[in-house]
Amino acid sequence: MELVGLKIWVGGIVQGVGFRPFVYSQATRLQLTGWVRNTSSGVEIEINGNPTQVEEFMKALSNNPPPLARIDSIESQACPVNGYLSFDIIASQPNPGDFLPISPDMTICEDCQRELFDPSDRRYRYPFINCTNCGPRFTIIQDIPYDRPKTTMSAFKMCANCEREYQDPLDRRFHAQPTACPECGPQLWFEANGQRLAEKEAALATARDWLKRGKILAIKGLGGYHLACDATNTGAVAELRIRKRRNDKAFALMTFDLSSVERECFLSPLEREALLSRPRPIVLLERRPGSMVAAEVAPNQHTLGFMLAYTPLHLLLMEPAPGFPEILVMTSGNQSEEPIAYQDEDARQRLVGLADGFLMHNRPIFMRVDDSVVRVMHNKLYYLRRSRGYAPDPIHLKKEVPSILAAGAELKNTFCLTRQNYAFLSHHIGDLENFETLQSYEEGIAHFERLFRIHPEAIACDLHPNYLSTRYAQNRAEQEHLNVYAIQHHHAHLAACLADNNWVSAEPVIGLSFDGTGLGSDNAIWGGEVLLGNYKSYQRIYHLAYVPLPGGDAAVHKPARMALAHLWQAGLDWEIDLPPVEALCADERTALRTQLEHRLNAPDTSSMGRFFDAASALLGVREKANYEGQAAIELEAAASPDELSAYEFGIENDIIDPGPLWVSMLHDWRAGLPLPVLSARFHNSLVNLVVQLCQTIRQQQGIDTVALSGGVWQNRYLYERSVKGLQKDGFKVLVHRRTPPNDGCIALGQALVAATTMVG
Length: 760
Fold this sequence. Notes:
Helix content: 25-40%
Number of strands: 30
Number of helices: 22
Shape: globular
Number of domains: 4
Radius of gyration: 27 Å
Structural class: alpha/beta
CATH topology of the largest domain: DHBP synthase
Distance between the termini: 53 Å
């Protein structure tokens, strides 16, 4: 049979995932000749063979790639038969300007975990065991192509055994860039008070002993340092809260395997699947009655955030043994509001007052990355924080877009860079409220631009002029003579949800953008918005009635003041026995009334987040909040799942008036109805409102697609019942699937709105 030649280009996540050895094994199995190599844009292949074998090779390429690979494109064209005698893996070819996606960091694979605990294996109990199917990726890469000299492993010269595996195309560690062993790789040590107390296995033993005795440790992980302690030790958890200055916000938990999670929480099949998935996110789960986890881990909540040990170091640290805690608090290594520490000297300085001891190693982290957080809602996985394990995996767009830098929001910041049909949404940066986080943000942008060879043609940002992200965008645009597109916050939410659903139609959809804050086009603080729009533009069809926001952003921490502002706006008395009235002294109430009447630092807001705060305070759930969303989270936790009744809103023209709801809810409160019933009725009222407004818009506009975006949609009670109600009424409901609904999605929306504006 006559031989044919074929040249193939594969794009996607195809480097650092065992793709070339996969190609090699398929080619040699089918007796094809030629070569494969990495390039700056993917993988390039040339093969010679008979047509039947070539066709089978192409099928294997498409249908059975390695576990961590993601193929976005395969292009091929006939080429001359070049008379190759074998199939080889040849040197990488960097092409200036080309780019490719990069694999996120992934949990240890089953093969490596088996070797880790196998006494006969040469990597037995080695904390940095990995292969092409697992281990660090994004956190160690400095540039592309993804080769060892361009990672933080470049300083570790491989021993002869590792080198042999690295060069063998049929070995699981062929060109596994972080590969190492106890002889040639990174090492572990334990230190306290500036003194190194133990190394290697003894360091692990010391750390375990300290944790067992109730100490707090700083542990260097994959993308930064964690602070860890025994999650069942009330005193240790309480002490960690004091040191970290984190009053109530829940801590994440880590355990060795599923058995401990199942004892503490209820698990659905999808939640079990999420815990075991390769990204190993933190999964929010319903806590079982009688859970041994200290109440101080998640005060006033019925959920716990669990993740399974995802690195060999974590597995060794948490190996089950009599007397050793099965569950550890594993929270980010930082003071509240600061970025996670990831460099050793910085960790020593910033965490010295938080940790009793440090479990450290000498594999450098190039890019800090926090843990991801997910929750199962309406039988689907829902991101609350998209970071380790998912970023920088790009959002694959249906259409090509210009190269744009989208600066993102102020809270829960991510940035986004676009190129061709990829949107590279960054890992979680955090709240841009201090210099340290801004510095992390700027470092991240520079790294993404370098990795993906992106030179922005324009910059998109939020409408709010005082956000640090907006200032960065404006300053940079001025320096580089770029156009700036200021995008309204809730329009960006709508656009992000559309992009998340690969929406390409120019037809408008109904956008329910419900969150805490976002500057509106009228300079009021929006947040309870019913929009009609697409990527290009939007109309504000309905919004929650304006209420004064006493103290501006400071109201986030003062639900009692927000409750009284709502009562004042509705013309309702501040009766002395109401919980928010009791929470404020007479002088505070007098000052607040003056502030409201004279509009002193009290801008108008339609915020749905602050509406939830007001309800929480009126029902005596939370009068003062220690973190964003606390009042709403605790109100949701109190809601009875069996209550069906609801209250009514007033609707006049485009205004949603909560006054009637407050009257009815306070009547029920005075009648002595229990909190679970009151909370459920409040939530049910919003569910009914959502369906009612969408029905009205459909009748008037003929539109039956609804997009849900904004942090309020993290409320499981509201989300699940709203989606169910809308779908039952025949609406197509678009929700976030690859990005969070909170402000972590804003940069993606900004990028798509700006791109649409640029291309027309």
